[in-house]
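Quick one, T. Sequence first:
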Amino acid sequence: MNSKEIRNKFITFYNQKEHKTIPSVSLIPENDSTLLFVNSGMFPLTQYLSGEKHPLGSRLVNYQRSFRTDDINDVGDKRHTTFFEMLGNWSLGDYFKEEQLNWWFDFIINEIGLDPNKLYQTVYLGNDSIPKDNESIEVLKKIYTKHGIDAYEGKEMLSGSPKEEIDFSKFKIFSYRDKNWWQRGDAVGELGGPDSETFYDTGKEHDSSYGEFCHPNCDCGRFIEIGNSVFMQYIKTEDGWKELKNKNVDFGGGLERLAMVSVGASSIFETDLFLPIISKIEELSGKKYSENVVSFEIIADHIKASCFVLGDVRGVPPSNKQQGYFVRRLIRRAIVYGRNIGIESFSVDLVKEVINIYKEYYPELVDNYDFVVSEIQKEEDKFRKTLDKGLKEFNKIESDVISGKDAFNLYQTYGFPIEITEELAQESGKKVDMDSFNLEMDKHKGLSQTASSGMFKGGLADSDDLTTKLHTATHILLYSLRNILGDSVAQRGSNITKERLRFDFSFERKLTDEEILEVEKMVNRIIADDLEVTKEEMSLDNALKSGALAFFGERYPDLVTVYSISGLSREICRGPHAKRTSELGSFRITKQESSGEGIRRIKAVLE
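Structure tokens:
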């Protein structure tokens, strides 16, 4: 079964279980300072998992494009990628463990056709304050019995790995202490709960370098995780974790991995989501994938991920900061590995293959084709001019430890991201003095840093009171900009932290000092008027007909939430917002700058 069939069947299956389909949101988060890229289908649902009513109800389903920066260094092992699609279904205080686990097994066995004998399930072992998830274990045993399998629970994994050989023909369910627990954060009010992961036995031989004995959560590659049901049944209080009255289900399944096990492939790169790209790389290089696995997988994954970030409705070009840094790193890393197999240029050829695979589901890739090709080509041309010189410079370094000064020279003069230098060093049996490299970076004024460490770890938008107020202020700011500069002004993105708001909008020139002052005064006038902020749920068509503004290019569900400020501002938005404008305090614009051709950026604070 190919990826299109799996994707479509998943949506249809849960639609028949009364789930409403929600759209795949932009890969670039808005109003979240903690996250560089959307890394799961759960991201746009944070507030609803916390208790707010979703306009489409309590049962939801979708497929969501995702990007995980942490997986960059794992690409090349036949099962990891940076870009992937997540199939997701959610219960917001509706059904729970029995329905979720039964439906999921029904889908993968009866709809996709997976052999139940090759399926294994993990659950949470519990700790001193949270009990073992015996409820899921009992549900799972009944599911296996339904499919003619006597499933027994294996020995509890207290330390994360077994002390003896496991009879996988008998034991199907395993409880782990150091895994199978999910929580959003450590603060009071955060949600958490046990999760139950589904693994598929690929039949590969165990690699003892990962431990003497294999188990479902082993990293050797024999077992591959294809789905995870998170049961959000606790809330963090001053006294520890307490049971929630309304419990949630958050399920995520990897489309690439489901496609892999469905066709019996040994790698996700041997599925229809990658094979056209792999074939084109073979054509361009004259080499075989089977003989150059790491190079092929890095090139295929990194160019695909770059296409999705560049081709997004909030597309980000290569740069030395934040999301742009990862686009640059992906493209340059692909170039280095392309050079290893003799590829001189691949921009147009590989971009076409990526878009052909996904155009039916992500039409924005087609719309932004010229921009994607242009940016990748420019980055290729720029880096290739210095690549050979940089490699020659690298090879001149005789010491086993590459100094921070040499590493910084490769970065500044030859455009080598530090991670590429580290990889080259590792291949040569050398190390990089990262402490001295960081000192060199700190000393160099004018170059952008990548981002704070917290942003690279990923996370969810906080619901801090000040963040909520700043979110409301962006609506007032957009209204004021359109009122003063004209209706051609449209929102092009925003980012909000507890300290400030950053707002991008379409406008061809720099604002004058007088215009900045005028915008600031209008925003403060609206705040002082103590206007009510109201929330309505309506169909998308009615929302647009009513004059509600929408983010250009964004895909919205059929039923949306509209926030209005007393007849002035009216926008389609997920929230949250202040109840009245007077709650905001005093608004001050701190900076304006360019954010790209025809795009201006304003930074502002509330005092």
